[in-house]
Amino acid sequence: MTEILWTRPEGECFGTLVLAHGAGAPMDANFMNRFAEALAMHGVAVARFEFAYMAKRRETGRKSPPPRADKLIGEFQKVTQQILEETEGPLLIGGKSMGGRVAAILAGGDSLPKRVTGVACLGYPFHPIGKSDAEHWRLEPLQNAQRPVFIAQGDRDQMGNKSEVKAIELPETVSIDWLEDGNHDLAPRGASPATWKGNIEQSALKTAEFLKALIS
Length: 216
Fold this sequence. Notes:
Elements lengths: L4 E3 L7 E6 L9 H11 L3 E6 L2 H9 L12 H14 L4 E6 L1 H9 L9 E7 L17 H5 L4 E6 L7 H5 L7 E6 L16 H20 L1
Parallel strand pairs: 2-3, 2-4, 4-5, 5-6, 6-7
Antiparallel strand pairs: 1-3
């Protein structure tokens, strides 16, 4: 079984987010810790895990590139099944950057039970950095998802900023909350009135509201 890092609410829990990391940072990276703690404050448990390539990095200390996103779907599906067996109540699947993309791809299949109510993406990688031409956009996972998708996105994200994303057509099942002056980690610049703490807390609040709306 895959090792799960849990962050649970102190009080009532009304759902769980299965949260995958991004391509280059582990499940206990600063961003992941901050977001999990913020979401738990809103009554949502967070179950974090690492894909095999990242777990191997932890063991060996050697960095290796991640597999293609579509090669990680099976791992995410197995972890989701594990969490379903360990918990009750509704689930979201999601992740930071690449992890959110993999979750969206998984949601495009027919294998998810009804308890998985939606997808939460933190900094969706709409396109690679510096490659915003049409052929590089990663819209198919969002277009094919069989569950509603929520995206918390920095409005100056290098992998899909507000002006770029506003210019494309997304399915009605995809909603985006734009974080003020946020980059791909949702962090604003030093001169901005926004703060990283505030942007993370806003993304956690909106994720919790997204789940509550799905189960109400």
